[in-house]
Specification:
The complex is a heterodimer of chains A (111) and B (111). Chain A has strands spanning 4-7, 10-14, 19-25, 32-38, 44-51, 56-59, 62-67, 72-77, 86-93, 99-101, 105-110. Chain A is mainly beta. Chain A starts with a strand and ends with a strand. Chain B is an all-beta fold and 111 residues long. Classes of the chains: A mainly beta (111), B mainly beta (111). Chain A binds chain B through residues 31-32, 34, 36, 38, 42-46, 49, 87, 89, 91, 93, 95-99, 101, 103-104, and chain B through 31, 33, 40-45, 48, 50, 55-56, 90, 92, 97-105.
């Protein structure tokens, strides 16, 4: 059974600092890994999708890396802004259409 | 131009009642899902349908019955509601095993 862990559970940084969010998973037989953002009381917004054959994906200030062999992914957010405050979730997809989610990291960026 | 929509957004009902949540996606995706997010914000898959056929049915009480009348719709019917059913229910869709897109969620409160 795939288990996905996100550490830390919460993170508070001053504006402008770079954010590093970690995601680890127990079964390396994955199809892809997806990072989401969830604002309070809202749905999930897809940020980045990394296929199992890829090492990283970038979108603007966001960069996600994937090390399948060690079961880790890291989401980097450069030059954080107060608008980046949200909960960030990673989800690992295995080939049977099932996504396993981590519990998320709640980020607060202080102005 | 909403991609994945759900109705209602909020649902407050008493124990023992039967209720339904509707989901529609206009992305042309062939796979749709229902997820439950509990009070600890943990997301867990309940059901997945591919081209109107059930492909994932997690350990969910049989009081929960999904129905997919066509590829663009996946509804969730819940019988004999219990206090423990209170949660946020998210519908999502994807094309095969690609990125997942979520609806805004339905907050169900059972009193």
């Amino acid at each position: 059974k795939q288990e996905v862990t996100q550490i830390p559970a919460a993170l508070s940084v001053p504006e402008g600092e770079n954010l590093v969010l970690n995601c680890s998973f127990t079964d390396s037989a994955i199809y892809n890994l997806q990072w989401f953002r969830q604002d309070p009381g809202k749905g999930l917004t897809s940020l980045l999708l990394i296929q199992s054959s890829q090492r990283e994906q970038t979108s603007g200030r966001l960069n996600a890396s994937l090390d399948k062999s060690s079961g880790r992914s890291t989401l980097y957010i450069a030059a954080s802004q107060p608008g980046d405050s949200a909960t960030y979730l990673c989800a690992v997809r295995q080939s049977d259409y099932k996504l396993s989610f981590g519990a998320g990291t709640t980020v607060t960026v202080r102005a | 131009d909403t991609a994945v929509s759900q109705t209602p957004k909020y649902l407050v009902t008493q124990m023992g009642n039967d209720k339904s949540i509707k989901c529609e996606q206009n992305l042309g995706h062939d796979t749709m899902y229902w997820y439950k997010q509990d009070s600890k914000k943990f997301l867990k898959i309940m059901f997945s349908y591919n081209n109107k056929e059930l492909i994932i049915n997690e350990t969910v009480p049989n009081r929960f019955s999904p129905k997919s009348p066509d590829k663009a719709h996946l509804n969730l019917h819940i019988n004999s509601l219990e206090l423990g059913d209170s949660a946020v229910y998210f519908c999502a869709s994807s094309q095969d095993e690609r990125a997942l897109y979520f609806g805004p969620g339905t907050r169900l409160t059972v009193t």
